[in-house]
Amino acid sequence: xxxxxxxxxxxxxxxxxxxxxxxxxxxxxxxxxxxxxxxxxxxxxxxxxxxxxxxxxxxxxxxxxxxxxxxxxxxxxxxxxxxxxxxxxxxxxxxxxxxxxxxxxxxxxxxxxxxxxxxxxxxxxxxxxxxxxxxxxxxxxxxxxxxxxxxxxxxxxxxxxxxxxxxxxxxxxxxxxxxxxxxxxxxxxxxxxxxxxxxxxxxxxxxxxxxxxxxxxxxxxxxxxxxxxxxxxxxxxxxxxxxxxxxxxxxxxxxxxxxxxxxxxxxxxxxxxxxxxxxxxxxxxxxxxxxxxxxxxxxxxxxxxxxxxxxxxxxxxxxxxxxxxxxxxxxxxxxxxxxxxxxxxxxxxxxxxxxxxxxxxxxxxxxxxxxxxxxxxxxxxxxxxxxxxxxxxxxxxxxxxxxxxxxxxxxxxxxxxxxxxxxxxxxxxxxxxxxxxxxxxxxxxxxxxxxxxxxxxxxxxxxxxxxxxxxxxxxxxxxxxxxxxxxxxxxxxxxxxxxxxxxxxxxxxxxxxxxxxxxxxxxxxxxxxxxxxx
Length: 534
Fold this sequence. Notes:
Helices cover 33% and strands 17% of the residues. It is α+β, with helices and mostly antiparallel strands. The relative contact order is 0.10.
């Protein structure tokens, strides 16, 4: 072809090429991968190609970042196979961006595929709230969390709603935790003793006179207005002896606390006595030496779930042995709960010996629920020292999160705690053997008696660093997954209660001291062969 009397030279076709690697600040990321903790300022992205590129033929329109336009400027790079692009704008903290490189002609190559990768900018590690003393922060966390039970309690029964916005659905075990927050609130000055006693009288009256029971045991859920059973599942529409035990544990603790000689507090004690003596603990053995978790008026024992250790249900056998009306034998405890020693572990995890239970200890609520009132300090029997058990469990949970073998984003010595909670896909019982990348504040905070320094570090991190996303009207939201930038907006009674109660047990031993005063409980512990502080 001739043009203006000269022969035009044909342009040579671009050779095929591909992207070998992306990197930011020397950190490589694969195609479709994700890079975390990227700075927000002066971000330079290096793109290495399969062969030399022509830097005079760069088409910046074929490089893009979500949420941004006209974003790049070229940066000199002596490597003939690497293109360096600086992002001109400052990025927002803890945000996700996607870089895309379109296939086709660019940089003197014909890219045969399109490419992309995600990067997440660093979190803002600055304090979100003013610093206060450690003691003041502990009180603040307790006060805000107590508000869940005080302000969000059911207006008719006073019982704890299952979770935020659960309407008339109140929870038996969560209400046991909730009533234990009342002495804390009184002693801390959040409410008056008279206010707390009136609320407790409302709750005790509802439970004694209106709530549906089965052989004296309560269902998992109740209607807070009518007292009728709300089925937890199809066949779980009757008695739940574990939930009942968690409720009764709380009632016996507050029974000792509300000890004044006035009409309201005498009525509280009388109604709690009625509830306590009505539970037919021995009937739930169903003719065996093992307590059965569920009974239904429609399905009888079909759920067939024995209560065996080690898990959260030690309190079931302690209360069953303590009952003045329907007590069980030590044989049932040894054979049914302890499995004649079969619940022992004895192995080391993260160089910490675990006396009981499944490997790594399971979810942290195993160390909380039975020990809201039952004092593990100096509590021993032929199977374990229960203080050692709970300390080991908490320390293993902390050490696992610190080691972070699954490389979940955000886990650290300050950001730890695996237990049952909401997570980004629903609800699960997180533990080192079921690790979904989700941290629940209740796990670390309710472990404060066992791991005070580790738990306080977590509390400060949750509050000061994550507090703008994690701390709301009723204290810390239920859980979060930093790797997915997910923060729950939920509050759940069985997670809120242990925060208030176990922090107080760490600070003063208030609920431990009151529960352990109960004469029936002490007789039951003696019967089962426990030694404890007297």
